[in-house]
Amino acid sequence: MRWARWFTSSYSNYQGGNCVEVADLASTSFASVAVRDSKAPDGLALLMGPSVFGVFVRALR
User: Fold this and answer.
1) Which of 12, 13, 38, 48 is geometrically suited to a Cys-Cys bond with 21, CB 3.0 to 4.6 A?
2) Residue 22 in contact with residue 9, Cβ under 8 Å?
3) What is the DSSP pairing of strand 46-48 with strand 32-37?
4) What is the pLDDT of residues 49-59, one digit of tens each?
5) Rounded CA separation 45/61 (Å)
6) What is the distance between the alpha carbons of residues 42 and 60, in angstroms, rounded to a whole number?
7) Is the pTM of this model over 0.85?
8) Is residue 1 included in any domain, yes or no?
9) Dihedral, CA of residue 41, residue 22, residue 7 and residue 1, to nearest 10
10) How high is the pLDDT of residue 15?
């Protein structure tokens, strides 16, 4: 998904901290939100529906 526009979490840092990126793919054929490890951008991405992503984010707070 090199074409996706990825956003780094505000909780991530460049000193080896938690590095999470998300891409909003809701308006694409994937109709989902993608989550990946920013330290492994060519690795796998987890796809989840927008409502599931909302539950995921709320669970992290």
Assistant:
1) 38
2) yes
3) antiparallel
4) 999 999 988 99
5) 21
6) 25
7) no
8) no
9) 50
10) 66
How many whole angstroms separate alpha carbon 59 and alpha carbon 24? 19
Is 12 among the domain residues? yes
Q: Is residue 43 part of a domain?
A: yes
Amino acid at 7: F
Q: Which structural domain range is residue 28 located in?
A: 7-60
For the chain, counts of helices (H) and of strands (E): 1, 4
Q: Are 47 and 30 in contact (CB under 8 A)?
A: yes
Average pLDDT, integer, range 26-52: 92
Say if residues 38 and 19 touch (Cβ distance below 8 Å): yes
Q: How many CB atoms lie within 10 A of CB 17?
A: 10
User: What one-letter code names the amino acid at 34?
Assistant: A
**Number of compact structural domains in the chain:** 1
The reply to whether 2 falls in a domain is no
